[in-house]
Amino acid sequence: MKKRIVVLGAAESGVGAAILAKKKDFDVFVSDMSEIKPNYKQMLEEYGLKWEEGQHTEALILNADEIIKSPGIPDTAPIIRKIKEAGIPIISEIEFAGRYTHAKMICITGSNGKTTTTSLIYHIFKEAGYNVGLAGNIGRSLALQIAEGKTYDYYVIELSSFQLDNMYKFRANIAVLLNITPDHLDRYNNDMQNYTDAKMRILQNQTEEDAFVYWADDPIIQRELKKYGIRAQKCPFSILQKKGMIGYIADGKYVIERPTPFNMEQESLSLTGKHNMYNSLAAGIAAHLSGIKDDSLRKSLSDFEGVEHRLEKVARVRGVEYINDSKATNVDACWYALESMKTPTILIIGGKDKGNDYSPIKELVKKKCTGLVYLGADNTKLHQNFDELGIPVADTHNMKECVEACAKMAKPGDTVLLSPCCASFDLFKNMEDRGDQFKELVRNL
What we know:
Elements: E1 4-8, H1 12-23, E2 27-32, H2 38-46, E3 50-53, H3 58-61, E4 66-69, H4 78-85, E5 90-91, H5 93-98, E6 104-109, H6 114-127, E7 132-136, H7 142-147, E8 154-158, H8 161-165, E9 174-177, H9 192-200, E10 211-215, H10 219-225, E11 233-237, E12 247-250, E13 253-256, E14 262-265, H11 274-289, H12 294-303, E15 312-317, E16 320-324, H13 331-339, E17 345-349, H14 359-368, E18 369-375, H15 380-386, E19 393-396, H16 399-409, E20 415-418, H17 431-443
Parallel strand pairs: 1-2, 1-4, 2-3, 4-5, 6-8, 6-9, 7-8, 9-10, 10-11, 16-20, 17-18, 17-20, 18-19
Antiparallel strand pairs: 12-13, 13-14, 15-16
Helix pairs in contact: 6-11, 6-12, 13-14
């Protein structure tokens, strides 16, 4: 009898997993509590997969041998509780896909900077002529690429904590851990340690042949390292030159010490801002460890164009610079964005709060901001946190109102920064939709 696999969630990762499972001759059923998008329905139909939407039929789910769960589904969902009670193993799409490829895995996680670092590593590898694929929390599903018969030598994979939660045997040949700061605590029982444990899972199954690249100045990472018997080669980096660092910035130079010395002018790096120094160091080390030649690495670090919705310059209108940082869905990401601002800033903040503590950015808001525009279905918590700073405030509940309020508040020479600290699901489809609406309205000013 065929082994039965049930896939929960029918978006990019779920549909990819279902197609791969079908190709590997499993009995497959796909179930999504929401409506499935037409393009994904079409893919399911094309491969003759059985599916349902708008419900989870327990009889068709609880007879599975294994469940592949999409990262967006929380453990508190009633169907997940029932699956756990039934003792059926739950895995992620990445865990499943990893069984069917021999490609080297370069995996990136962290609370902030994941997408930029992943995209930069992919850019470096591709430009160097490596046979490389991009997957995970970015781009196309890993399972789908494997199902389509892609035979890459390397995959560069962005991993969220939700994906890592359901990964057990998967092994990262190069694991990159950028930072750990509060995020998604609503999914982790408001317990920072639970979230931290999820991030540290990127180390599991690494051997002496593998490498672990991490930011040495992150206090949480420093504390956690002591708990793990790390077998991989440790590759710590810092913005400062100090003992034991494999990468750092010193005297205006970007330096990687091992496996062979590499350096370039810091000014030549295409990504600017302190946070991007970390991203560029992590990416450069991962590439250097993979044997990418110095000239190629130097060129790619200096011509990378950055990531949409991450400190993306939109337009200058009547002397005011507008910047889209819609990807800043937590407080720490907003801190980095504000820290990089060189002109008086009108900050757009708000959305679906994930248990945020705004105290880390208050000092920067006081120092850098000449105005605050709240953008959310409910802005009460923002009023409670920021009104006391005495900075002019505008209350808005859609992007049109928001951009109009910013245009009214900003003076020539100011910067308007959309860096919301929050998820977008209260008013928008997702953070891309929020960023796209912002860009369109700014360009129409």
